[in-house]
Amino acid sequence: MRVPTPTMDLHYMREAVDRSATIQRALGRLDRAVTSAQVARALVEAGVSSADASSGALVLLTDDRRELRIVYAAGEAAESGDAERRLPLTANVPLAEVVRSRRELWLSHPEQLVGRFPGAEPLADAGSWAVLPLLIDNVMLGAVGWSFRRRGFTSDQRACLQALGQAGGAALYRAGLFDAERRSRMQAELARYEVLRRDRLLAEVSATLDATADVAKTGAPLARIARLAIRILGEWCAIDVLDERGRVHCVAAAHVDAAKGQILRDAEQRSPDTGRKLPHGLSQGKPVVITALDEASTRQAGLGVRQARLLRQVGLRRVMVMPLRIHGHTLGTLSVASEDASRTYSSTDLMLAKRVARRCAASLEYSRLHQTAERANQAREDFVAATSHELRTPLSHIKGFVSTLRTTDTVWDAETRGDFLAEIEQEADRLARLVETLLDLSRIDSGGLDPTARAAMAPAALVEAGVDRVRLSLGDHPLEIEVADDLPQVWVDASQIERVLANLLDNAAKYSPPTEPIGVIGRLAGDAVVVRIEDRGLGIPAEHVERVFDPFFREPSGGYSAKPGTGLGLAICRSIIRSQGGRIWAEQRQGGGAAFVFTLPLEVRPTSRSSAQVAVGRTSRKPTFRPRS
After folding, report:
1. Residue 481: its pLDDT value, please?
2. Rounded to 10 degrees, what is the CA torsion of 204, 207, 211, 214?
3. Are residue 233 and residue 175 in the same domain, yes or no?
4. How far apart are CA 423 and CA 63, in angstroms?
5. What is the value of pTM for the model shown?
Protein backbone atom coordinates (compact mmCIF):
# COMPACT_ATOMS: atom_id res chain seq x y z
CA MET A 1 0.00 0.00 0.00
CA ARG A 2 1.37 3.38 -0.96
CA VAL A 3 1.50 5.98 1.84
CA PRO A 4 0.88 9.54 0.58
CA THR A 5 3.67 12.00 1.27
CA PRO A 6 2.42 15.01 3.30
CA THR A 7 2.82 18.34 1.63
CA MET A 8 4.60 21.06 3.61
CA ASP A 9 3.92 24.81 3.40
CA LEU A 10 7.48 26.06 2.97
CA HIS A 11 6.35 29.68 2.87
CA TYR A 12 4.76 29.36 6.32
CA MET A 13 7.88 27.70 7.68
CA ARG A 14 10.10 30.45 6.33
CA GLU A 15 7.85 33.07 7.98
CA ALA A 16 8.01 31.20 11.28
CA VAL A 17 11.80 30.95 11.11
CA ASP A 18 12.10 34.63 10.23
CA ARG A 19 9.73 35.60 13.05
CA SER A 20 11.67 33.44 15.49
CA ALA A 21 14.94 35.04 14.37
CA THR A 22 13.41 38.49 14.79
CA ILE A 23 12.28 37.64 18.31
CA GLN A 24 15.71 36.26 19.13
CA ARG A 25 17.34 39.46 17.88
CA ALA A 26 14.93 41.52 19.97
CA LEU A 27 15.67 39.42 23.05
CA GLY A 28 19.38 39.85 22.34
CA ARG A 29 18.95 43.63 22.34
CA LEU A 30 17.18 43.35 25.70
CA ASP A 31 20.06 41.32 27.09
CA ARG A 32 22.54 43.95 25.96
CA ALA A 33 20.53 46.84 27.39
CA VAL A 34 22.01 48.04 30.69
CA THR A 35 19.93 50.95 31.98
CA SER A 36 16.16 51.15 32.42
CA ALA A 37 15.94 53.67 29.57
CA GLN A 38 17.84 51.34 27.25
CA VAL A 39 15.63 48.38 28.19
CA ALA A 40 12.47 50.44 27.62
CA ARG A 41 13.66 51.51 24.17
CA ALA A 42 14.69 47.97 23.17
CA LEU A 43 11.42 46.46 24.42
CA VAL A 44 9.12 48.95 22.68
CA GLU A 45 11.06 48.79 19.40
CA ALA A 46 11.15 44.98 19.59
CA GLY A 47 7.35 44.95 19.51
CA VAL A 48 7.37 47.31 16.55
CA SER A 49 9.84 45.23 14.58
CA SER A 50 8.72 41.73 15.67
CA ALA A 51 4.95 42.05 15.91
CA ASP A 52 4.25 44.70 13.26
CA ALA A 53 3.19 47.33 15.87
CA SER A 54 2.87 50.91 14.64
CA SER A 55 3.71 52.58 17.97
CA GLY A 56 4.34 51.76 21.61
CA ALA A 57 5.10 53.12 25.08
CA LEU A 58 6.50 51.81 28.35
CA VAL A 59 5.71 53.14 31.83
CA LEU A 60 7.30 52.39 35.22
CA LEU A 61 5.97 52.88 38.71
CA THR A 62 7.57 55.79 40.59
CA ASP A 63 9.31 55.23 43.94
CA ASP A 64 6.20 56.23 45.89
CA ARG A 65 4.13 53.85 43.67
CA ARG A 66 1.48 56.52 43.16
CA GLU A 67 2.33 57.54 39.61
CA LEU A 68 3.46 56.06 36.31
CA ARG A 69 6.46 57.58 34.54
CA ILE A 70 6.55 57.23 30.76
CA VAL A 71 10.10 56.05 30.13
CA TYR A 72 9.97 55.63 26.36
CA ALA A 73 7.47 56.07 23.54
CA ALA A 74 7.85 55.36 19.84
CA GLY A 75 5.87 56.03 16.70
CA GLU A 76 2.59 57.90 16.98
CA ALA A 77 2.67 57.56 20.78
CA ALA A 78 5.81 59.72 20.88
CA GLU A 79 4.36 62.23 18.41
CA SER A 80 1.23 62.61 20.55
CA GLY A 81 3.22 64.34 23.29
CA ASP A 82 2.91 61.55 25.86
CA ALA A 83 6.71 61.18 26.21
CA GLU A 84 8.28 62.47 29.44
CA ARG A 85 4.87 62.61 31.11
CA ARG A 86 3.64 61.25 34.38
CA LEU A 87 0.26 59.61 34.89
CA PRO A 88 -1.50 59.09 38.19
CA LEU A 89 -1.98 55.41 38.97
CA THR A 90 -5.71 56.07 39.23
CA ALA A 91 -5.94 57.39 35.64
CA ASN A 92 -8.56 55.69 33.46
CA VAL A 93 -6.16 54.73 30.67
CA PRO A 94 -5.07 51.26 29.44
CA LEU A 95 -1.50 51.43 30.85
CA ALA A 96 -2.70 52.40 34.35
CA GLU A 97 -5.50 49.79 34.22
CA VAL A 98 -3.02 47.00 33.48
CA VAL A 99 -0.73 48.04 36.35
CA ARG A 100 -3.67 48.12 38.76
CA SER A 101 -5.22 44.81 37.61
CA ARG A 102 -1.91 43.02 36.87
CA ARG A 103 -3.64 41.44 33.83
CA GLU A 104 -3.01 41.59 30.08
CA LEU A 105 -5.29 43.83 28.04
CA TRP A 106 -6.15 43.00 24.40
CA LEU A 107 -8.40 45.48 22.54
CA SER A 108 -9.18 44.26 19.03
CA HIS A 109 -10.97 47.36 17.64
CA PRO A 110 -11.53 51.06 18.55
CA GLU A 111 -15.06 50.46 19.85
CA GLN A 112 -13.62 48.30 22.63
CA LEU A 113 -11.16 51.04 23.60
CA VAL A 114 -13.74 53.81 23.73
CA GLY A 115 -16.31 51.60 25.44
CA ARG A 116 -13.93 50.52 28.21
CA PHE A 117 -12.14 53.83 28.59
CA PRO A 118 -14.61 56.66 27.98
CA GLY A 119 -12.86 59.82 26.90
CA ALA A 120 -9.96 57.95 25.31
CA GLU A 121 -8.95 59.30 21.91
CA PRO A 122 -7.57 56.53 19.66
CA LEU A 123 -4.46 57.38 17.67
CA ALA A 124 -4.94 57.89 13.95
CA ASP A 125 -4.90 54.67 11.91
CA ALA A 126 -4.89 52.56 15.10
CA GLY A 127 -7.11 49.47 14.91
CA SER A 128 -6.09 47.39 17.96
CA TRP A 129 -4.07 47.64 21.17
CA ALA A 130 -2.11 45.25 23.37
CA VAL A 131 -0.97 46.19 26.90
CA LEU A 132 1.03 43.78 29.10
CA PRO A 133 2.15 44.03 32.74
CA LEU A 134 5.87 43.97 33.49
CA LEU A 135 6.45 41.66 36.47
CA ILE A 136 9.34 39.96 38.18
CA ASP A 137 8.65 37.40 40.93
CA ASN A 138 5.11 38.77 41.10
CA VAL A 139 6.41 42.30 41.81
CA MET A 140 4.80 44.94 39.60
CA LEU A 141 7.32 47.16 37.79
CA GLY A 142 5.17 48.83 35.16
CA ALA A 143 3.51 48.10 31.82
CA VAL A 144 4.26 48.15 28.11
CA GLY A 145 1.73 48.73 25.34
CA TRP A 146 1.61 48.70 21.54
CA SER A 147 -0.93 49.81 18.96
CA PHE A 148 -1.52 48.16 15.57
CA ARG A 149 -3.06 49.42 12.34
CA ARG A 150 -4.92 46.15 11.70
CA ARG A 151 -7.77 44.97 13.84
CA GLY A 152 -7.39 41.83 15.90
CA PHE A 153 -4.32 39.73 16.72
CA THR A 154 -2.86 36.57 15.34
CA SER A 155 -1.70 33.79 17.64
CA ASP A 156 1.89 34.49 16.57
CA GLN A 157 1.53 38.15 17.53
CA ARG A 158 0.15 37.24 20.94
CA ALA A 159 2.94 34.74 21.57
CA CYS A 160 5.61 37.21 20.45
CA LEU A 161 4.33 40.06 22.64
CA GLN A 162 3.91 37.79 25.65
CA ALA A 163 7.47 36.55 25.26
CA LEU A 164 8.69 40.14 25.04
CA GLY A 165 6.68 41.09 28.15
CA GLN A 166 8.19 38.27 30.21
CA ALA A 167 11.72 39.04 29.04
CA GLY A 168 11.13 42.76 29.57
CA GLY A 169 10.23 42.29 33.26
CA ALA A 170 13.47 40.43 33.95
CA ALA A 171 15.52 42.97 31.95
CA LEU A 172 13.94 45.91 33.78
CA TYR A 173 14.65 44.33 37.16
CA ARG A 174 18.29 43.84 36.21
CA ALA A 175 18.50 47.38 34.84
CA GLY A 176 16.88 48.74 38.01
CA LEU A 177 19.64 47.22 40.11
CA PHE A 178 22.23 48.75 37.79
CA ASP A 179 20.52 52.15 37.94
CA ALA A 180 20.37 52.03 41.74
CA GLU A 181 24.06 51.15 41.95
CA ARG A 182 24.94 53.91 39.50
CA ARG A 183 22.85 56.46 41.43
CA SER A 184 24.56 55.36 44.62
CA ARG A 185 27.97 55.83 43.05
CA MET A 186 27.00 59.21 41.65
CA GLN A 187 25.63 60.36 44.99
CA ALA A 188 28.79 59.22 46.74
CA GLU A 189 30.90 61.03 44.16
CA LEU A 190 28.81 64.18 44.50
CA ALA A 191 29.05 63.98 48.28
CA ARG A 192 32.82 63.58 48.06
CA TYR A 193 33.00 66.51 45.66
CA GLU A 194 30.92 68.67 48.02
CA VAL A 195 33.17 67.77 50.93
CA LEU A 196 36.21 68.76 48.87
CA ARG A 197 34.57 72.04 47.87
CA ARG A 198 33.69 72.88 51.48
CA ASP A 199 37.13 71.89 52.76
CA ARG A 200 38.73 74.01 50.06
CA LEU A 201 36.50 76.96 51.02
CA LEU A 202 37.47 76.67 54.70
CA ALA A 203 41.14 76.39 53.75
CA GLU A 204 40.91 79.53 51.61
CA VAL A 205 39.08 81.38 54.41
CA SER A 206 41.77 80.44 56.91
CA ALA A 207 44.55 81.33 54.48
CA THR A 208 42.94 84.72 53.77
CA LEU A 209 42.69 85.59 57.44
CA ASP A 210 46.14 84.24 58.30
CA ALA A 211 47.74 86.22 55.49
CA THR A 212 46.40 89.54 56.74
CA ALA A 213 49.48 91.59 57.54
CA ASP A 214 47.72 94.49 59.29
CA VAL A 215 45.43 93.04 61.96
CA ALA A 216 43.84 96.45 62.44
CA LYS A 217 42.42 96.30 58.88
CA THR A 218 39.95 93.44 58.59
CA GLY A 219 37.70 94.92 55.88
CA ALA A 220 39.67 93.62 52.88
CA PRO A 221 40.00 89.99 54.07
CA LEU A 222 36.34 89.91 55.12
CA ALA A 223 35.35 91.14 51.66
CA ARG A 224 37.39 88.28 50.21
CA ILE A 225 35.60 85.82 52.49
CA ALA A 226 32.21 87.16 51.37
CA ARG A 227 33.21 86.45 47.75
CA LEU A 228 34.33 82.95 48.71
CA ALA A 229 31.07 82.17 50.54
CA ILE A 230 28.86 82.86 47.51
CA ARG A 231 30.54 79.99 45.64
CA ILE A 232 28.61 77.49 47.75
CA LEU A 233 26.10 79.14 50.07
CA GLY A 234 24.14 81.44 47.76
CA GLU A 235 24.19 84.39 45.40
CA TRP A 236 24.77 87.10 48.05
CA CYS A 237 26.80 87.36 51.23
CA ALA A 238 27.25 90.19 53.74
CA ILE A 239 29.32 90.42 56.92
CA ASP A 240 28.17 92.84 59.63
CA VAL A 241 29.98 93.71 62.84
CA LEU A 242 28.82 95.38 66.04
CA ASP A 243 30.35 98.57 67.38
CA GLU A 244 30.87 99.33 71.06
CA ARG A 245 27.26 100.50 71.34
CA GLY A 246 25.91 97.28 69.87
CA ARG A 247 24.93 98.85 66.54
CA VAL A 248 25.29 96.96 63.24
CA HIS A 249 27.78 98.08 60.58
CA CYS A 250 28.24 96.33 57.23
CA VAL A 251 31.95 95.81 56.56
CA ALA A 252 31.82 93.48 53.54
CA ALA A 253 29.30 92.35 50.91
CA ALA A 254 29.41 90.46 47.61
CA HIS A 255 26.98 89.31 44.91
CA VAL A 256 27.55 86.86 42.05
CA ASP A 257 25.99 89.41 39.68
CA ALA A 258 28.21 92.49 39.52
CA ALA A 259 25.32 94.75 38.47
CA LYS A 260 23.11 93.64 41.37
CA GLY A 261 26.03 93.94 43.76
CA GLN A 262 26.57 97.53 42.62
CA ILE A 263 22.89 98.32 43.22
CA LEU A 264 23.17 97.10 46.80
CA ARG A 265 26.45 98.98 47.40
CA ASP A 266 25.05 102.24 46.00
CA ALA A 267 21.99 101.95 48.23
CA GLU A 268 24.19 101.29 51.29
CA GLN A 269 26.37 104.32 50.53
CA ARG A 270 23.38 106.59 50.04
CA SER A 271 21.75 105.59 53.31
CA PRO A 272 23.86 103.39 55.63
CA ASP A 273 21.61 101.26 57.83
CA THR A 274 23.68 101.47 61.05
CA GLY A 275 21.00 102.20 63.62
CA ARG A 276 19.67 98.69 64.16
CA LYS A 277 20.55 96.19 66.82
CA LEU A 278 20.65 92.41 66.65
CA PRO A 279 17.52 90.56 67.80
CA HIS A 280 17.78 88.52 70.98
CA GLY A 281 18.13 85.15 69.23
CA LEU A 282 21.09 86.18 67.09
CA SER A 283 22.78 87.98 69.97
CA GLN A 284 22.54 84.72 71.92
CA GLY A 285 24.23 82.80 69.10
CA LYS A 286 21.20 81.16 67.42
CA PRO A 287 21.29 81.06 63.58
CA VAL A 288 18.23 82.12 61.59
CA VAL A 289 16.93 80.67 58.31
CA ILE A 290 13.99 82.43 56.65
CA THR A 291 12.08 81.41 53.54
CA ALA A 292 10.40 84.75 52.81
CA LEU A 293 11.58 88.32 53.38
CA ASP A 294 8.39 89.53 55.06
CA GLU A 295 8.27 91.98 57.98
CA ALA A 296 8.28 89.35 60.74
CA SER A 297 11.18 87.32 59.34
CA THR A 298 13.10 90.53 58.60
CA ARG A 299 13.07 91.42 62.29
CA GLN A 300 13.98 87.86 63.24
CA ALA A 301 17.02 87.90 60.93
CA GLY A 302 18.22 91.29 62.15
CA LEU A 303 17.82 92.86 58.68
CA GLY A 304 16.68 96.41 58.23
CA VAL A 305 13.34 96.96 56.48
CA ARG A 306 15.04 98.92 53.71
CA GLN A 307 17.74 96.28 53.34
CA ALA A 308 15.16 93.48 53.06
CA ARG A 309 13.28 95.45 50.40
CA LEU A 310 16.48 95.87 48.37
CA LEU A 311 17.27 92.15 48.65
CA ARG A 312 13.79 91.33 47.31
CA GLN A 313 14.28 93.78 44.45
CA VAL A 314 17.44 92.00 43.27
CA GLY A 315 15.64 88.64 43.36
CA LEU A 316 16.89 87.11 46.63
CA ARG A 317 14.43 84.88 48.45
CA ARG A 318 16.00 82.48 50.99
CA VAL A 319 18.24 83.95 53.70
CA MET A 320 20.47 82.36 56.35
CA VAL A 321 22.04 84.48 59.09
CA MET A 322 24.85 83.00 61.22
CA PRO A 323 26.16 84.88 64.29
CA LEU A 324 29.87 85.66 64.47
CA ARG A 325 30.34 84.23 67.92
CA ILE A 326 33.42 83.49 70.02
CA HIS A 327 34.02 83.04 73.75
CA GLY A 328 30.32 83.49 74.46
CA HIS A 329 30.12 86.89 72.72
CA THR A 330 28.44 87.79 69.42
CA LEU A 331 30.58 90.17 67.36
CA GLY A 332 28.37 90.39 64.27
CA THR A 333 26.65 88.26 61.64
CA LEU A 334 27.39 86.40 58.42
CA SER A 335 24.35 86.59 56.09
CA VAL A 336 23.90 84.60 52.87
CA ALA A 337 20.93 84.59 50.52
CA SER A 338 19.82 82.57 47.49
CA GLU A 339 17.62 83.45 44.53
CA ASP A 340 16.32 79.86 44.39
CA ALA A 341 12.97 79.93 46.20
CA SER A 342 13.01 76.13 46.48
CA ARG A 343 16.43 75.95 48.13
CA THR A 344 16.54 74.65 51.67
CA TYR A 345 19.60 75.40 53.78
CA SER A 346 20.54 71.98 55.13
CA SER A 347 22.33 71.09 58.34
CA THR A 348 25.51 70.75 56.25
CA ASP A 349 25.08 74.32 54.99
CA LEU A 350 24.51 75.52 58.55
CA MET A 351 27.63 73.74 59.76
CA LEU A 352 29.73 75.21 56.94
CA ALA A 353 28.41 78.73 57.60
CA LYS A 354 29.07 78.24 61.32
CA ARG A 355 32.68 77.24 60.70
CA VAL A 356 33.25 80.21 58.37
CA ALA A 357 31.58 82.53 60.90
CA ARG A 358 33.75 81.16 63.72
CA ARG A 359 36.91 81.90 61.75
CA CYS A 360 35.69 85.43 60.99
CA ALA A 361 34.82 85.95 64.65
CA ALA A 362 38.27 84.75 65.71
CA SER A 363 39.89 87.19 63.29
CA LEU A 364 37.74 90.06 64.54
CA GLU A 365 38.46 89.14 68.15
CA TYR A 366 42.20 89.01 67.48
CA SER A 367 42.04 92.36 65.69
CA ARG A 368 40.12 93.95 68.55
CA LEU A 369 42.45 92.49 71.17
CA HIS A 370 45.41 93.82 69.21
CA GLN A 371 43.86 97.28 68.99
CA THR A 372 42.95 97.15 72.68
CA ALA A 373 46.51 96.23 73.58
CA GLU A 374 47.87 99.07 71.47
CA ARG A 375 45.42 101.52 73.00
CA ALA A 376 46.30 100.22 76.46
CA ASN A 377 50.00 100.71 75.82
CA GLN A 378 49.39 104.19 74.49
CA ALA A 379 47.03 104.98 77.36
CA ARG A 380 49.60 103.77 79.86
CA GLU A 381 52.25 106.00 78.35
CA ASP A 382 49.87 108.96 78.25
CA PHE A 383 48.71 108.23 81.80
CA VAL A 384 52.26 108.06 83.13
CA ALA A 385 53.16 111.29 81.35
CA ALA A 386 50.01 113.09 82.51
CA THR A 387 50.31 111.77 86.05
CA SER A 388 53.92 112.86 86.25
CA HIS A 389 52.92 116.32 85.07
CA GLU A 390 50.00 116.59 87.48
CA LEU A 391 52.10 115.38 90.43
CA ARG A 392 55.05 117.54 89.51
CA THR A 393 53.05 120.79 89.62
CA PRO A 394 51.98 120.68 93.32
CA LEU A 395 55.32 119.16 94.32
CA SER A 396 57.22 121.97 92.63
CA HIS A 397 55.02 124.53 94.42
CA ILE A 398 55.61 122.85 97.78
CA LYS A 399 59.35 122.57 97.16
CA GLY A 400 59.54 126.21 96.11
CA PHE A 401 57.79 127.56 99.20
CA VAL A 402 59.77 125.25 101.52
CA SER A 403 63.06 126.34 99.93
CA THR A 404 62.02 129.97 100.29
CA LEU A 405 61.21 129.55 103.98
CA ARG A 406 64.53 127.87 104.60
CA THR A 407 66.63 130.68 103.17
CA THR A 408 68.90 132.28 105.79
CA ASP A 409 69.55 135.59 104.09
CA THR A 410 65.96 136.79 104.48
CA VAL A 411 63.82 137.13 107.59
CA TRP A 412 60.12 136.61 106.85
CA ASP A 413 57.49 138.22 109.01
CA ALA A 414 54.79 136.09 110.61
CA GLU A 415 52.09 137.06 108.12
CA THR A 416 54.25 136.14 105.09
CA ARG A 417 55.31 132.87 106.67
CA GLY A 418 51.64 132.11 107.30
CA ASP A 419 50.79 132.80 103.66
CA PHE A 420 53.61 130.50 102.51
CA LEU A 421 52.49 127.73 104.85
CA ALA A 422 48.90 128.14 103.64
CA GLU A 423 50.08 127.71 100.05
CA ILE A 424 52.05 124.62 101.05
CA GLU A 425 49.01 123.16 102.79
CA GLN A 426 46.76 123.92 99.82
CA GLU A 427 49.15 122.24 97.37
CA ALA A 428 49.52 119.27 99.73
CA ASP A 429 45.75 118.92 99.88
CA ARG A 430 45.62 119.13 96.09
CA LEU A 431 48.28 116.42 95.89
CA ALA A 432 46.41 114.24 98.39
CA ARG A 433 43.16 114.58 96.43
CA LEU A 434 44.93 113.67 93.21
CA VAL A 435 46.52 110.60 94.77
CA GLU A 436 43.20 109.54 96.29
CA THR A 437 41.46 109.98 92.94
CA LEU A 438 44.11 107.90 91.20
CA LEU A 439 43.71 105.18 93.80
CA ASP A 440 39.93 105.23 93.31
CA LEU A 441 40.35 104.92 89.55
CA SER A 442 42.77 102.02 89.96
CA ARG A 443 40.53 100.26 92.47
CA ILE A 444 37.45 100.58 90.23
CA ASP A 445 39.25 99.39 87.09
CA SER A 446 40.67 96.39 88.93
CA GLY A 447 37.21 95.32 90.15
CA GLY A 448 37.78 96.52 93.68
CA LEU A 449 34.22 97.74 94.23
CA ASP A 450 32.21 95.71 96.72
CA PRO A 451 29.60 93.76 94.66
CA THR A 452 27.45 93.27 97.77
CA ALA A 453 26.85 97.03 97.86
CA ARG A 454 24.51 96.74 94.88
CA ALA A 455 20.80 96.91 95.49
CA ALA A 456 17.56 97.58 93.66
CA MET A 457 17.22 101.35 93.27
CA ALA A 458 14.64 103.64 91.71
CA PRO A 459 16.27 105.80 88.97
CA ALA A 460 14.41 108.89 90.17
CA ALA A 461 15.84 108.46 93.67
CA LEU A 462 19.37 108.06 92.28
CA VAL A 463 19.04 111.25 90.24
CA GLU A 464 17.77 113.22 93.24
CA ALA A 465 20.66 112.00 95.39
CA GLY A 466 23.19 112.87 92.68
CA VAL A 467 21.71 116.37 92.36
CA ASP A 468 21.94 116.87 96.12
CA ARG A 469 25.69 116.22 95.99
CA VAL A 470 26.37 119.18 93.67
CA ARG A 471 23.34 121.42 94.14
CA LEU A 472 25.39 124.23 95.70
CA SER A 473 28.09 124.14 92.99
CA LEU A 474 25.63 124.39 90.08
CA GLY A 475 25.27 128.14 90.60
CA ASP A 476 22.55 129.73 88.49
CA HIS A 477 22.06 126.71 86.22
CA PRO A 478 18.43 125.53 86.48
CA LEU A 479 17.76 121.79 86.26
CA GLU A 480 15.23 120.24 83.90
CA ILE A 481 14.64 116.73 85.24
CA GLU A 482 12.58 114.22 83.28
CA VAL A 483 12.83 110.95 85.17
CA ALA A 484 9.53 109.20 85.77
CA ASP A 485 8.81 107.71 89.20
CA ASP A 486 7.51 104.48 87.63
CA LEU A 487 10.72 103.54 85.81
CA PRO A 488 11.80 99.97 86.67
CA GLN A 489 14.38 99.62 89.40
CA VAL A 490 18.04 99.16 88.49
CA TRP A 491 20.59 96.91 90.18
CA VAL A 492 23.55 99.16 91.07
CA ASP A 493 25.79 100.50 93.83
CA ALA A 494 23.83 103.64 94.68
CA SER A 495 26.74 105.65 96.08
CA GLN A 496 28.84 105.07 92.96
CA ILE A 497 26.03 106.00 90.55
CA GLU A 498 25.33 109.14 92.61
CA ARG A 499 29.02 109.97 92.19
CA VAL A 500 28.70 109.57 88.41
CA LEU A 501 25.66 111.84 88.30
CA ALA A 502 27.41 114.44 90.44
CA ASN A 503 30.52 114.41 88.22
CA LEU A 504 28.48 114.74 85.02
CA LEU A 505 26.33 117.56 86.41
CA ASP A 506 29.44 119.38 87.61
CA ASN A 507 31.03 118.87 84.19
CA ALA A 508 27.92 120.26 82.46
CA ALA A 509 28.05 123.36 84.66
CA LYS A 510 31.72 123.95 83.82
CA TYR A 511 31.15 124.00 80.07
CA SER A 512 27.79 125.83 79.93
CA PRO A 513 27.09 129.56 79.85
CA PRO A 514 25.80 130.92 83.18
CA THR A 515 22.02 130.61 83.72
CA GLU A 516 21.65 128.04 80.91
CA PRO A 517 19.62 124.97 82.01
CA ILE A 518 21.02 121.48 82.45
CA GLY A 519 18.79 118.56 81.46
CA VAL A 520 18.55 115.17 83.15
CA ILE A 521 16.44 112.65 81.20
CA GLY A 522 15.75 109.03 82.11
CA ARG A 523 14.11 106.55 79.73
CA LEU A 524 13.55 102.79 79.58
CA ALA A 525 15.32 101.14 76.62
CA GLY A 526 15.10 97.35 76.40
CA ASP A 527 16.72 95.74 79.42
CA ALA A 528 18.30 98.95 80.74
CA VAL A 529 17.49 102.49 81.87
CA VAL A 530 19.22 105.20 79.82
CA VAL A 531 20.15 108.47 81.57
CA ARG A 532 21.16 111.61 79.63
CA ILE A 533 22.86 114.70 81.05
CA GLU A 534 22.53 117.57 78.55
CA ASP A 535 24.09 121.03 78.57
CA ARG A 536 23.68 124.07 76.31
CA GLY A 537 27.36 124.81 75.79
CA LEU A 538 29.52 124.73 72.67
CA GLY A 539 29.43 120.96 72.41
CA ILE A 540 32.34 118.57 71.91
CA PRO A 541 34.45 118.63 68.73
CA ALA A 542 34.16 115.40 66.79
CA GLU A 543 37.84 114.58 67.28
CA HIS A 544 37.42 114.81 71.07
CA VAL A 545 34.23 112.73 71.50
CA GLU A 546 36.21 109.55 72.23
CA ARG A 547 39.00 111.29 74.17
CA VAL A 548 36.91 113.09 76.79
CA PHE A 549 36.92 109.94 78.95
CA ASP A 550 40.72 109.65 78.90
CA PRO A 551 42.46 110.46 82.19
CA PHE A 552 43.65 114.10 82.50
CA PHE A 553 42.05 115.10 79.19
CA ARG A 554 40.31 118.45 79.65
CA GLU A 555 38.22 120.15 77.00
CA PRO A 556 38.87 123.91 76.77
CA SER A 557 36.13 125.85 78.57
CA GLY A 558 35.30 127.89 75.47
CA GLY A 559 35.53 131.24 77.23
CA TYR A 560 33.32 130.30 80.18
CA SER A 561 34.71 130.55 83.67
CA ALA A 562 36.04 127.02 84.09
CA LYS A 563 36.35 125.47 87.52
CA PRO A 564 39.53 123.76 88.68
CA GLY A 565 39.75 119.98 88.48
CA THR A 566 42.06 117.02 87.97
CA GLY A 567 40.75 115.87 84.58
CA LEU A 568 39.87 112.47 86.06
CA GLY A 569 36.15 112.93 86.64
CA LEU A 570 34.93 111.50 83.31
CA ALA A 571 37.50 108.69 83.45
CA ILE A 572 36.11 107.67 86.87
CA CYS A 573 32.56 107.89 85.50
CA ARG A 574 33.46 105.50 82.68
CA SER A 575 35.12 103.04 85.05
CA ILE A 576 32.18 103.07 87.47
CA ILE A 577 29.53 102.59 84.77
CA ARG A 578 31.47 99.71 83.23
CA SER A 579 31.86 98.08 86.64
CA GLN A 580 28.07 98.25 87.06
CA GLY A 581 27.44 96.46 83.74
CA GLY A 582 26.47 99.58 81.78
CA ARG A 583 27.88 101.71 78.97
CA ILE A 584 28.69 105.43 78.77
CA TRP A 585 29.38 107.69 75.81
CA ALA A 586 29.32 111.33 74.72
CA GLU A 587 27.46 112.83 71.79
CA GLN A 588 26.29 116.15 70.43
CA ARG A 589 23.01 117.48 71.77
CA GLN A 590 20.44 118.25 69.12
CA GLY A 591 20.10 122.02 69.09
CA GLY A 592 23.60 122.67 70.47
CA GLY A 593 25.63 121.55 73.43
CA ALA A 594 26.81 118.17 74.60
CA ALA A 595 25.10 115.10 76.05
CA PHE A 596 26.65 112.42 78.25
CA VAL A 597 24.64 109.21 78.16
CA PHE A 598 24.96 106.07 80.29
CA THR A 599 22.94 102.91 80.81
CA LEU A 600 22.07 101.08 84.01
CA PRO A 601 21.03 97.40 84.00
CA LEU A 602 17.58 96.54 85.30
CA GLU A 603 17.16 94.50 88.46
CA VAL A 604 17.89 90.87 87.61
CA ARG A 605 17.76 89.13 90.97
CA PRO A 606 15.08 89.03 93.69
CA THR A 607 15.69 91.20 96.77
CA SER A 608 14.12 90.96 100.19
CA ARG A 609 11.47 93.46 101.13
CA SER A 610 13.50 94.94 103.93
CA SER A 611 16.63 95.52 101.83
CA ALA A 612 14.59 97.08 99.03
CA GLN A 613 12.87 99.41 101.49
CA VAL A 614 16.21 100.40 102.97
CA ALA A 615 17.73 101.02 99.53
CA VAL A 616 14.81 103.13 98.33
CA GLY A 617 14.47 104.90 101.66
CA ARG A 618 17.96 106.40 101.42
CA THR A 619 16.57 109.26 99.27
CA SER A 620 12.96 109.83 100.07
CA ARG A 621 12.51 113.21 98.42
CA LYS A 622 11.07 113.26 94.91
CA PRO A 623 12.76 115.29 92.16
CA THR A 624 11.16 118.46 90.92
CA PHE A 625 10.12 118.18 87.28
CA ARG A 626 10.20 121.20 85.00
CA PRO A 627 9.20 121.26 81.31
CA ARG A 628 12.12 121.36 78.89
CA SER A 629 12.48 124.49 76.78
Report:
1. 92
2. 80
3. no
4. 100
5. 0.52
